[in-house]
Amino acid sequence: xxxxxxxxxxxxxxxxxxxxxxxxxxxxxxxxxxxxxxxxxxxxxxxxxxxxxxxxxxxxxxxxxxxxxxxxxxxxxxxxxxxxxxxxxxxxxxxxxxxxxxxxxxxxxxxxxxxxxxxxxx
Length: 122
Fold this sequence. Notes:
Number of domains: 1
Number of strands: 5
Number of helices: 5
CATH topology: Rossmann fold
Structural class: alpha/beta
Strand content: 15-25%
Strand order of the largest sheet: 2-1-3-4-5
Shape: globular
CATH class: Alpha Beta
Radius of gyration: 13 Å
CATH superfamily: Response regulator
Order of helices and strands: EHEHEHEHEH
Helix content: 40-55%
Distance between the termini: 10 Å
């Protein structure tokens, strides 16, 4: 089963997403900041990253930029999982920045799993 990293500065969100993914059989790892995420991504090479946008110090857009600029991590797909729910935010994420999917909080279990399966080609 695929290995998925959950990146969010809110522990309750991380715990919920991790529970949903592990219930579906996915292996998960977590990071609570952009800096921690980049370090773990370089070491663990997850199959997918679920990434929050609004985090202190280094936001999700900066993390995504670092991921795609590194030859070893540039092919890791990213789903943004964020409270930024304005249609313009989603459009920028999907069409300008080019993330694989954009899910807004609060999200449903089935929405999350459907998106993960779609991005992983399952």
